[in-house]
Design a protein that fits this description.
Elements: H1 14-24, E1 26-30, E2 35-37, E3 45-59, E4 65-71, H2 78-85, E5 93-106, H3 107-116, H4 118-144, H5 147-162, E6 166-167, H6 171-178, H7 182-194, E7 198-201, E8 204-207
Antiparallel strand pairs: 1-5, 2-5, 3-4, 3-5, 6-8, 7-8
Amino acid sequence: MRYLILPAMISFRQKELEEELTESTQTIHLNAGDELLRENSYIRSIPVLNTGLIGVYRTDEDGKEILLYYIKPGESCIMSFLAGIHQDTSKVKAIAEEDSEIMLIPIEKVSSWVRKYPEWSDYIFKLYHHRFEELLNVVNAIAFQKMDERILNHLKKKSQLSRSNELNITHQQLADELGSTREVVSRLLKQLEKNRLVILSRNKISLV
């Protein structure tokens, strides 16, 4: 069974931690579109992404969604960690954006390793700091950026993550990720195309 060696764990105690990872965790595979984490569900294990990409979303009472952040290889979901250690339900849902391999660590192990391994504790706190900055960026974008700017910046971010200027995404999917409506997104995409910043085709958006 193959496991990811997290950079933050590199130390003289790394071998011991790796042995516990091998003994305590299981690896699962998700196809693009599969659900990893469901809102209002109790957290039994913490995911650490080996390969692929996971999107973390928040849904309001009307069913409107917004993308909070992406989980990239070597990263975990700090929202899952916080809910798990406090025996609370998840406030977010996580969806595989592409085929992904995920390592699941039992929540009781995650908590004990924070006390036992300084390198694991350092990994968790660095991840928490990184996620906090990402959430601040989401708040700033909603509060201070025009929707056309948000759309273009979001497309650029997805392009960097996928390493491609051609994105297989519908206007509805883009609207869901930005917490907007398809009508608004379609209108602004047409304006961006008119300004020669994107090229629109069926279920695909290309950055120029």
